[in-house]
């Protein structure tokens, strides 16, 4: 088990060895290991200090000079402390900056509310020109490092603090804007997950199968633009959807999916995520259980939407 | 680079009058905009675009050009006018300021208007972008300079000082910040809204070389800009100016931060600026 943030950072450093077409800006956090870039390539890594507004502005200036830039720090800072700089100086001028936000969701556990980015996707989703991707495990994080390197334009990569279970094998490929159907037991219900909640979705699908409910599981690794075809296909097949995310119920995956479905294919939906509250200190699994984001809660939500169909 | 005969001090003064007339005409035609801070920066901007900056209007993205970032983006009328008079855009474009479909957005858009290096409009950020551009030039060992123009009220933004610290930390010898010290902001004088003094001491203490000038003495403006270009930076030029300079009823009057002159006021302004030649 490895944390997505370190796998992503390590892979970016690997890519740096053979590609000299990008630089890194850091804001004095041990976010994803990419901070070591300066040891390998001193002229390609810039320390900006504890100054997130300037982190983004400097990244914008470098990008205006045709550098590809990775700007990395904790998600709670990079999407909020310098929110306006991301909007006005990365998204509006459509500059080639990958904003890397780590320590997302309740997985930061003990650090508590100030460090738990549970609104970051909602904020980044609202900006025109922004693309958002989130790996579900270490294999996906590695693939997403390559995708981010090849991407041109404003990009937000959402990463996670703690090691999480390995789901994919080396045959996994990441395609921007395309969801992955990870499991397909049948047409009773579709569980649409993003990020490291995928393992819980898979466990829930297994538990549902034992109860005679056939679920399919979809990994929405691109949060924006949403893979509308994948959502609509799942909705048409199942008419029962559960979304699962380690993010506020306001503005994230659940909001994107329900907005789409309410317009194009109204059906029974339950959204699993953090209610309209801040995080708090505690083991992440305790927090997930508190907010009904654990496997039994996903199973119960699936049973509810399936029951409504009948 | 296309041949360009740099203007001398007298020619710059003449050009500055044209620019000032453009500004009041543009803002009048738009019905809104920011004449005060555009007029205070006119002499500096004229010296930059018609003498100091290495530019090629035929190739706005020419790699060897000096970079200029307007950090106080609301003062884009003066930027648009110098870009037009220098040949980046047509002079006829100027009447489209703030209109639907115009390349001259209410605050500058780097993709819509040739010659605009960075989109702007939110204060305190252009200098950070300029730091990024200066780092880029330094690591690529390119010898062009990066200029950025800020307002004095803008120096109330904390991000200005994040960037100032960063410019000195990364020893950006190619970075020159000019502060248009016109002493007024939207609600009142800078002294009353949020005191920024001692401004020179602040820049010095952040590790910058500081040059203090009269921002309307064209000979001094020109000499100082060229001197700043010749020395190792980062350099901050603090230019004492008068908001609304050149139009008596706008000079040092807060209202003209963001107001459009009426038809009658426009006529008065144009003839005053014209009369300044005599």
Helicity of chain A, as a percent range: 25-40%
Q: Report how far apart the termini of chain A are.
A: 40 Å
Strand order of the largest sheet of chain B: 1-2-3-5-4
Radius of gyration of chain B: 17 Å
Structural classification of chain A? alpha/beta
Mean pLDDT of chain A, to the nearest integer, reads 97
Total domains of chain A: 2
Family (chain A): Belongs to the transketolase family.
Protein name (chain A): Transketolase
Keywords (chain A): Thiamine pyrophosphate, Transferase
GO molecular function, one term (chain A): transferase activity
Q: Could you explain the architecture of this structure?
A:
The complex is a heterodimer of chains A (310) and B (278). Chain A has two domains: 4-158, Thiamin diphosphate (ThDP)-binding fold, Pyr/PP domains (Rossmann fold, 3-Layer(aba) Sandwich), CATH 3.40.50.970; 180-309, Rossmann fold. In chain A, strands 2-1-3-4-6-5-10 form a seven-stranded mixed β-sheet, with helices on both faces. By secondary structure, chain A is of the alpha/beta class. Chain A contains twelve helices and twelve strands. Helices cover 39% and strands 20% of the residues of chain A. In chain A, strand 5 (131-133), helix 7 (138-150) and strand 6 form a beta-alpha-beta unit. The relative contact order of chain A is 0.13. With 278 residues, chain B is α/β, with parallel strands linked by helices. Chain B has a single domain (9-275), classed as Rossmann fold, CATH 3.40.50.970. Chain B contains ten helices and five strands; from the N terminus they run αααβααβαβααβαβα. Chain B has a five-stranded parallel β-sheet with strand order 1-2-3-5-4, sandwiched between helices. The longest helix of chain B is centred in the N-terminal third of the chain and has 22 residues, at 9-30.
């Amino acid at each position: 088990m490895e944390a997505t943030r370190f796998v992503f950072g390590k892979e970016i450093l690997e890519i740096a060895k053979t590609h000299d077409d990008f630089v890194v800006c850091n804001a004095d956090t041990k976010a994803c290991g990419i901070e070591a870039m300066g040891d390998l390539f001193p002229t390609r890594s810039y320390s900006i200090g504890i100054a997130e507004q300037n982190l983004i502005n400097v990244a914008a200036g470098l990008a205006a000079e045709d550098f590809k830039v990775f700007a990395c720090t904790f998600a709670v800072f990079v999407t909020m402390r310098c929110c306006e700089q991301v909007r006005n100086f990365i998204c509006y001028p459509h500059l080639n900056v990958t904003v890397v936000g780590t320590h997302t969701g309740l997985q930061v556990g003990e650090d508590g509310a100030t460090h738990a980015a549970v609104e970051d996707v909602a904020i980044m989703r609202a900006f025109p020109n922004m693309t958002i991707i989130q790996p579900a495990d270490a294999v996906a994080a590695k693939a997403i490092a390559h995708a981010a390197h090849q991407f041109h334009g404003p990009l937000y990569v959402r990463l996670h603090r703690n090691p999480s279970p390995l789901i994919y094998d080396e045959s996994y490929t990441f395609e921007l804007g395309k969801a992955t159907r990870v499991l397909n037991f049948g047409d009773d219900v579709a569980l649409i997950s993003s990020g490291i909640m995928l393992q819980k979705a898979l466990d829930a699908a297994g538990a549902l199968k034992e109860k005679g409910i056939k679920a399919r599981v979809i990994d929405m690794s691109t949060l924006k633009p949403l893979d509308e075809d994948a959502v609509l296909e799942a909705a048409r097949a199942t008419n029962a959807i559960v979304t699962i995310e380690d993010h506020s119920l306001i503005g994230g995956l659940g909001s994107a999916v329900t907005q789409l479905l309410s317009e194009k294919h109204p059906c029974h939906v339950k959204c699993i995520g953090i209610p309209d509250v801040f995080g708090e200190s505690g083991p992440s699994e305790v927090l997930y259980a508190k907010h009904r984001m654990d496997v039994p809660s996903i199973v119960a939500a699936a049973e509810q939407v399936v029951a409504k169909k009948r | 680079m296309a041949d360009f005969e740099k203007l001398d001090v007298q020619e710059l003064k003449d050009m500055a009058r044209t620019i000032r007339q453009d500004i009041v005409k543009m803002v009048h035609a738009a019905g809104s905009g920011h004449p005060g801070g555009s007029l205070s920066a006119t002499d500096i901007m004229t010296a930059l675009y018609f003498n100091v900056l290495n530019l090629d209007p035929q190739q706005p993205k020419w790699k060897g050009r000096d970079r200029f970032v307007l950090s106080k983006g609301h003062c884009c009328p003066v930027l648009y006018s110098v870009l037009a008079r220098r040949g980046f855009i047509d002079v006829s474009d100027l009447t489209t300021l703030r209109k639907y479909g115009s390349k001259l957005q209410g605050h500058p858009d780097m993709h819509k208007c040739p010659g605009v290096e960075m989109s702007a409009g939110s204060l305190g950020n252009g200098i950070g972008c300029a730091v990024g551009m200066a780092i880029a030039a330094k690591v690529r060992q390119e010898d062009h300079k990066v200029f950025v123009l800020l307002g004095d009220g803008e120096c109330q933004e904390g991000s200005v000082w994040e960037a100032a610290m960063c410019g000195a930390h990364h020893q950006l010898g190619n970075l020159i910040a000019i502060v248009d010290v016109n002493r007024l902001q939207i609600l009142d004088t800078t002294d009353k809204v949020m005191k920024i003094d001692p401004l020179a001491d602040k820049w010095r203490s952040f590790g910058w070389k500081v040059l203090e000038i009269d921002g309307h003495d064209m000979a001094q403006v020109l000499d100082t800009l060229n001197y700043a270009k010749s020395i190792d930076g980062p350099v901050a030029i603090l230019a004492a100016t008068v908001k609304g300079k050149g139009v008596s009823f706008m000079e040092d009057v807060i209202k003209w931060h963001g107001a459009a002159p009426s038809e009658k006021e426009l006529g008065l302004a144009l003839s005053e600026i014209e009369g300044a030649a005599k």
